Amino acid sequence: MDEELEKKFQEAYQIASTTNIKLPPDIMLQFYAYYKQATKQNNFTQPSGEIKLKNAFKLNAWIQINHLSEKESKEAYIKLVHKYLK
């Protein structure tokens, strides 16, 4: 894997995980899905939240992008951070 891409992805993750910016739920689902696809690929696991409906939306968002590669997912995640959090 490209070291530069990995560095940018980790930086983007730090920004996303420490922001105080409140994003709409549909954007948060995109962050979740791209992150999971980038880090787990198609090894789908049940989301750990307590709200079943929210978990269903998370899993659905991830499944919808399961055609993306690890690289494509990381690039999309980075773009989301730049679009909404920078």
Itemize the secondary structure elements and their pairings:
Elements: H1 3-18, H2 25-40, H3 52-64, H4 70-84
CATH class: Mainly Alpha
Give the C-alpha Rg: 13 Å
Give the topology string: H per helix, E per strand.
HHHH
Structural class: mainly alpha
Share of helical residues:
55-70%
- The overall number of domains is 1
Based on CA inertia axes, which overall geometry fits? globular
Q: How far apart lie the N and C ends? A: 25 Å
Give the total of beta strands: 0
**What's the architecture, going by CATH?**
Up-down Bundle
**β-sheet strand percentage:** under 5%
Number of helices: 4
State the CATH topology: Acyl-CoA Binding Protein
Stretches where pLDDT is under 50 for at least 5 consecutive residues are: none
Major β-sheet annotation: none
Quick check: average pLDDT?
93
Task: Describe what this molecule looks like in 3D.
This protein has 86 residues and is mostly helical. It has one domain: Up-down Bundle (Acyl-CoA Binding Protein). It is built from four helices and no strands. The protein has helices at residues 3-18, 25-40, 52-64, 70-84. Helix 1 (3-18) packs across helix 4 (70-84) and helix 2 packs antiparallel against helix 4 (70-84). It is globular and about 35 Å long.
